[in-house]
Amino acid sequence: MVELTANEKENYLNELIELLKIPSISADSAFAKDVEAAAAWVASALEKAGAEKVEIVPTPGYPIVYGEKIIDPNLPTVLVYGHYDVQPPDPLELWDSPAFEPVIKTTPLHPDGAIFARGACDDKGQMYMHIKAFEWMMKHNQLHCNVKFMIEGEEEVGSDNLEGFIREHKDRLTSDVILISDTGMISNEQPSITTGLRGLSYMEVTVTGPNRDLHSGLYGGAVANPINILAQMIASLQDEQQRITIPGFYDKVLELSKEERAEMAKAPFDLEDYKKSIGLSDIHGEEGYTTSERQSIRPTLDVNGIWGGYTGEGAKTVIPSKAHAKISMRLVPNQNWEEIGQLFEKHFQSIAPKSVHVEVTTHHGGTPYVTPIDNIGYRAAHKAYATSFGVEPFPQRGGGSIPIVPLFEEVLGVKSVLMGFGLDTDAIHSPNEHFGLFNFYKGIETIPLFYKNYAALAKE
Ligand code: BES
Ligand code: MN
Ligand code: MN
After folding, report:
1. Do both 170 and 240 map to the same domain?
2. Could you list the residue range(s) of the whole structural domain that residue 204 is in?
3. Does the Cβ of 119 fall within 6 Å of ligand 1?
4. Residues 170 and 106 in one domain
């Protein structure tokens, strides 16, 4: 067992607060200096914790922070991955306190308090647990593995430059297991280990009608309105059973066996709590699958944004020339994101009436990933949670995406263990994102057990 002292807890939290004050929003170039500042902050934190060869490695985008501690070349090496960039905080007016002015408040699920700030859970708080766990292991002479840190600043915008970095620095990154805390768990009473991530195919479409905005009285009824057309096209992408209508979309989807689905269904899930937590009176989704299945083992299609025409104050009678939408699809094994993008484009063009012109472009994508549970990485994590929570963790397929994880395996040949400590209700990417103090400290206490278990299992 690892137990942090009150003093350690206080220091670790105050440091995290400093990091959370830096608005490292990778999507918005107005914050470029802050993203760089967060990288520098992380590098200095790694150095203070006892890491060596700490380096802020530049890339064509934001830098990757590297650091390591090699205690014995014969011991296994853990490569820790995390990200210091965050999602934009908007809509700002929906935050109860400013996104980059961290405050601690209690919530029903976090009676010991939670820290509210953009990035608290995704991923600054969870990434920082690893730096503090490392510091703790150094201080208490408990570091049982070598460790390498690779903390990036472009995860929230698709990790464009990380692939180049891992290809170029393959030798520097040799390791036995990759350890990541950038996912969640079932609840504070029932830990779980994420065993899957969905892939992603992110598209943007533009529908063009007339060559200029038109008076909707003069022309209305006689020409195609691109917004009306786009809305119809989007609506047709799902049928009444909430299945996606793109031909070939499901062809490669790996169906789970009855046994696998029964195993999954053992994880506790309360539909009433679920609905209540997001203010819904009913759920919605693909027929024949449970809510947990819909959000993990099934592919989806969602419009993430739609715009066009007049959206300012008052009313304007206009037929717009253009309408736009951002549409993303979450993918599952064995779908290929590039192929799905092509199927989408072909289908979307084919359903467009001749009265409009349609353009489809691809933003980014990612491959789905499933982690094995019969390797020592997973077993070390399982045992670590069991010890620190006093409850056996469930394996759980996650619905989100971390597109670099499958590339780690492809390029470095190393498997990842997804030891997340957040809760789905922590509002990542939403206003009022938070991370429980219980979760933060428990994470720091659980990580050293992983190193200890991994070293022991590797010896067997
Ligand atoms: N940490 C999340 C991914 C995540 C969260 C996975 C919770 C599983 C459970 C990550 O920062 C993220 O937001 N990823 C993006 C993809 C990226 C390409 C923008 C996502 O899932 O939308
Ligand atoms: Mn993340
Ligand atoms: Mn994220």
Report:
1. no
2. 199-253+299-366
3. no
4. yes
